[in-house]
Design a protein that fits this description.
Blueprint lengths: L26 H17 L5 E7 L5 H16 L13 E5 L2 H11 L10 E2 L1 H11 L3 E7 L19 H8 E8 L13 H8 L3 E7 L9 H11 L13 E5 L2 H14 L3 E5 L13 E4 L2 E5 L19 E3 L1 H4 L4 E8 L3 E4 L4 E4 L19 H17 L2 E9 L2 H15 L1
Parallel strand pairs: 1-5, 1-6, 2-3, 2-4, 4-5, 7-15, 8-11, 8-12, 10-11, 12-15
Antiparallel strand pairs: 9-10, 13-14
Helix pairs in contact: 1-2, 4-5, 7-10
Length: about 400
């Protein structure tokens, strides 16, 4: 068991650094915040420019951009100031409904930031086109969720979110992680990003230090191996609680116990179980385990990860992406198996229930390879949510046996 303090009711990965719930920035993070502000000062009146911040989940990308955004808004709204950014129009965009809820709520506690400073990308693009306005500095958190094709059902008529944003802003600051791409219609890789940024002044920053998972490096290495289709020996025993379960109900009971003592502990699952937005409850059943999927509550002001009642639900990648948990119990559903012959993870795209993730494959080379990458990315997102402990259960018998072997070898 770790001796670190329990998480607050806020998802710490996204709490602005000025919040009482957020530890002070490290010297390196503060230096990056200063660099972002200077980059905006230098380029907002000179030429189109983009600053791309990359890094794995938990490397503090959102923390840094929130601190930089708040600083820039302080400068922009200082009526007596003479800073080049004084009077500038700046926005934070995020294509994630749960994170928008959180950002707008936290904005009310920060003197320089307003709720209207946070928008969905489609709203920003459509409003700018309708009013003929532009922005000075636009931050895009979780830029890997931007649409890379039109989505008329959701009122985006243009070809590409980022292409539109680059045309409507003088400076764009992007948080980008290609290992968190989850859909064909928002399919990104580094080459696609580079092609769109051609013609702009571009600066890249790579973050590597892990802030979320209070774990030794072998935990991140194990997760990286899994998303590459390999099973490495289990991490060594340490304060971060990494466990393999043979029974999903037992895992749930352990998660409930942690939620009672530490808070912010939840069950999560791959999108391998039927779920329909029809107002009804839909359930995940694995042996003795039987629990409903997360309910869609768009009018609920709290994000799913923040609500205490969601200990009675199973979260999906769409409700937890971008948020921290203390402990996560992850169910690897039937689409995630083990191939004894190749000694590799086997991904069965035909058993993935998130069919919307695979809509819009036109123009993509090797869509089957991308399907598998999307599913492994989703697993990566689920596994990288917890700060203090990760528990795994595999539905597929072969994978469950192999994980059990690794557990037993580590205990020998």
């Amino acid at each position: 068991m770790t001796t670190s303090k329990p998480a607050t009711s806020l998802p710490l990965a996204d709490v602005p650094p000025t919040s009482p719930s957020r530890p002070a920035l490290t010297k390196a993070q503060q230096a990056l915040v200063d660099h972002i502000v200077d980059f905006a000062r230098t380029h907002h009146a000179a030429s189109p420019a983009a600053l791309v911040i990359e890094g794995d989940a938990g490397t503090g990308k959102s923390v840094v951009v929130n601190a930089a955004f708040e600083r820039i808004q302080q400068l922009a709204r200082d009526r007596q100031g003479h800073d080049p950014l004084a009077g500038s129009r700046n926005l934070m965009l995020v294509n994630h409904p749960e994170m928008i809820k959180f950002y707008k709520r936290v904005a009310g506690t920060l003197p320089a930031v307003r709720k209207g400073d946070y928008q969905r990308p489609t709203s920003f693009v459509n409003q700018c086109h309708k009013s003929g306005t532009t922005a000075d500095v636009v931050f895009v958190d979780e830029a890997h969720l931007l649409l890379s094709r039109s989505d008329r059902y959701n009122h985006f008529e243009q070809d590409n979110h980022l292409q539109e944003i680059l045309a409507l802003a003088k400076v764009v600051v992007l948080v980008f992680d290609p290992h968190q791409v989850l859909k064909f219609k928002s399919y990104w890789n580094r080459q696609r990003l580079q092609d769109l940024l051609h013609g702009h002044v571009v600066k890249h920053v790579q973050l590597t230090e892990q802030f979320r998972m209070h774990a030794e490096a072998d935990v991140s290495q194990w997760i990286h191996g899994f998303r590459a289709g390999r099973l490495l020996p289990l991490p060594a025993e340490q304060s971060f609680d990494f466990r393999i379960f043979d029974d999903a109900q037992s895992m749930y009971e352990a998660i409930c116990a942690h939620d009672r003592t530490a808070g912010m502990s939840r069950m999560l699952a791959t999108y391998d179980y039927p779920y329909t937005l029809d107002g009804k409850d839909h359930f995940i059943t694995e042996g003795r385990f039987h629990l409903r999927w997360d309910r869609s509550l768009p009018q609920e002001p709290l994000a799913w990860a923040e609500r205490p009642d969601t200990i009675e639900e199973v979260g999906s990648v769409y409700t937890v992406q971008g948020f921290d948990l203390n402990y996560a119990g992850v169910i690897l559903g039937p689409s995630v198996g083990w191939d004894e012959a190749s000694q590799r993870i086997r991904i069965d795209t035909g058993r993935y229930e998130d069919r919307a993730a695979f809509a819009g494959q036109q123009g993509l080379d090797d869509p089957e390879e991308i399907r598998q990458a999307i599913m492994l990315n989703a697993i990566n997102v689920l596994m990288t949510r917890p700060t203090r402990g990760l528990y795994l259960y595999a539905s597929d018998p072969a994978l469950r046996r192999q994980l059990g072997r690794l557990r037993d070898q580590g205990a020998a």
